[in-house]
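User: Can you help me understand a structure? I only have the sequence.
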Amino acid sequence: MVKKSFNLDPFSGCVFLFCGSRRDRFKALYWDGQGFWLLYKRFENGKLAWPNNEDEVRELSDEQVMRLMQGFTIDPKINTARAREFY
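Assistant: Let's start by predicting it. Here is the structure, written out as tokens:
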């Protein structure tokens, strides 16, 4: 799937993340030089903010991956309207 659908090299040492349609779980695929690692994570509460199509697929920073693993959104947003109330 990594090679055919996205034209990427699954043996590159990158971690590839996949999410199911329910968006409450994801899988991570990683080649360590001897074999593939497959990590499966299921969230008890909440859902992932996940790309809807190939145009939204992107490379994530280490910090964004860690946020995802902890169940947070990869792009934290600040509500500027609420933030102004404190000035």
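Now, to help you interpret it: The first strand starts at residue 15 and ends at 19. The helical segments are 2-6, 62-69, 80-84. Let me know which part you'd like to focus on.
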